[in-house]
Design brief:
The protein is mainly alpha-helical. The chain contains 3 helices and 2 strands; from the N terminus they run ααββα.
Length: 133
């Protein structure tokens, strides 16, 4: 069965999506940590005390052996551009990575040298090895 974005199923924006119905790697949130984080946030911004937490979630952080994202075309799957392994840094480097990915897809001169990010580098890498740049 096909599930997720590749599915031909259509849904309204106010309905549960196929991806939500078929969640994987869905860890349980650490409520102790969430309460502590909320407490600390309220100390910094007292107005937050008037706002209840309406929902919580948890997730896994994807990473690569060298801690550097894999960005580029996957040689074994022509046309497939991979962008993964941001090791929790997606919010910080997301805009630049998005620009690089757009450049790769469009075939324009990339904003930065894409070579250090190529997914194939992981074929010969070892855990703990520092990136080549």
């Amino acid at each position: 069965m096909r599930q997720g974005h590749e599915s031909f199923v259509k849904w309204a924006l106010d309905e549960t999506t196929p991806m939500e119905l078929n969640r994987t790697l869905n860890p349980r949130p650490d409520m102790r940590q969430i309460r502590l984080t909320h407490q600390r946030a309220c100390e910094l911004l007292p107005e937050l005390r008037r706002v209840a937490i309406s929902n919580v979630w948890a997730g896994y952080i994807d990473s690569t052996p060298d801690g550097v994202p894999a960005i580029g075309e996957v040689g074994a799957i022509p046309g497939f551009i991979l962008a993964a392994g941001f090791s929790g840094h997606g919010f910080g480097i997301g805009p630049g990575a998005g620009h690089l990915i757009a450049d790769i897809i469009a075939g324009t001169a990339p904003i930065v040298d894409p070579h250090p990010y190529r997914p194939e580098r992981l074929k010969t890498g070892a855990w703990g090895k520092v990136a080549e740049f």
